[in-house]
Amino acid sequence: MNIDPTCIGINRLCYPGVRDYAGGPTAMHFAQELSKVLKPEDVVLILCGFVLRNHQRTEMDGFTGALLTARALVEGFDVKPVIVIPQESQQALKNCAAVVGLNYYDSLDLVLERPFAMTGVVIPKDAKAAEECADKILAFNPRALISMETASPNEKGVYHMAYGWDVTKIEAKMDVLFNKVKERAIPTFSIGDCGNELGMGAIKNYIQEHVPGAGEGGCICECKGGAAAATAADHIIIAKTADWGCYAMIAALAYLKKNMKIMHDANLQADLMKAAAYHGMLTTNGSLTPAIDGFSVKFNATLIDLMRQCVEIGVTSEDAMWIDKFTKTGFFTE
User: Fold this and answer.
1) Where is the D-glutamate cyclase-like C-terminal domain (predicted)?
2) According to a count of CB atoms within 10 Å of the terminal CB, is the N or C end of the chain lower?
3) Are 73 and 79 in contact (CB under 8 A)?
4) Residues forming beta bridges with residue 103, ordered by sequence position
5) How far apart are CA 230 and CA 57, in angstroms?
6) Between vectors from CA 172 to CA 166 and to CA 176, what angle results, nearest 5°?
7) Distance between CA atoms of 47 and 178, rounded to whole angstroms?
8) Among the CATH numbers 3.90.1640.20, 3.40.640.10, 3.40.50.920, 3.90.1580.10, which is that of 10-328?
9) Domain ranges of the chain
10) What is the pLDDT of residues 284-308, one digit of tens each?
11) Is 217 helix (H, G, I), strand (E, B) or coil?
C-alpha cells in the first residue's frame, strides 16, 4: 500500500508516525481492532467523498474503497453498511452498489431485513443541516465508523485540498457526524493519504512536521492554519492512495478470518473503477478516465493480484508463521 511510483513521498514520510501510533503494522492493526468490534447485523457507517475543486465533483479515491469495504464487511461479518456521502456521489453509489454484489435500498429497515444489502445517506455542505442529518444517522445505532479520503477541517475550521487550497464551501461536513460518533465512544477508523483527511489528526503534530503545507502557514488560503486535519480517529492508515490503504485493510481482514471471499479480485477491481468513472467519479486531474489518484485500472488490478497472492500464502500455508522459529533463535540479529 505504500509503494510510491510517483516518488512524491508523503506516504513514506507519514508511515513511521502512523506505525508508532498503531504500535505495529498499520493495516493489520486496523483490521484487528475492527474485527474486535463487529458482529452480525451491526450497522457500520462508511464515510467517503472528497469533492475536487476543478469540477466540484467527487474523486474516485475513497469511493471505490468504501464500496469494496462494504462488500468485505458483509462477506466477513454479515454487517449492514451505511455509506455516508456528499450529494455529488449519491447517484454513482446507487448505480455502483450492484457491481460489488450488494443490493442498494433507500430504506435502512429493508437493509436490516435482507442479506447482501446496503444503503446510503447524504451529508449536506451546510453545518447546521449536517447536525440534523447526523442526529438521524445516529438513530441507526452504528457499531463503528470508517472514514476514507474524506475532507476534514483544520484547527481553524477550514477544509483544504492536500496542496492547501480552501475547499470549505464545496465539502460535505462529515466531521459533524464524526465528532458526534466520537462523543458516544463509538470506535472510529480512518484512512487517508496526505494528512488532510478526516481522522488523520490522530498524528497531527507529526503530519504538520513532515508533510509540506500541513503546518502553520503552509496552506495557500487566508486562514494560514495549514492543511493538517484537526479530527482524530482511534485507528488510522496512511497509504499512497487512500484506496490502497483500504485494500491492505481488506487483505488483512481476509487473512485474519482465513476467508478469501473477503478479498476482491482484479476483475472486480477493474469493473468497479470503470463503473465509477462512467457514473462521474473523477481522478485527481479532473479526468473521467478510470483511475485512482492517476493510477490506471491495470495498475490497481495488478496491486490487488499481488495482495491476494500474499494473503493466499498466509491462509493456505500449514505454518504461516514459520519465520518465527528463526527469529527466536536470533538468526536475524547480530
Assistant:
1) 32-307
2) C
3) yes
4) 117
5) 24
6) 105
7) 9
8) 3.90.1640.20
9) 10-328
10) 999 999 999 999 999 999 999 999 9
11) coil
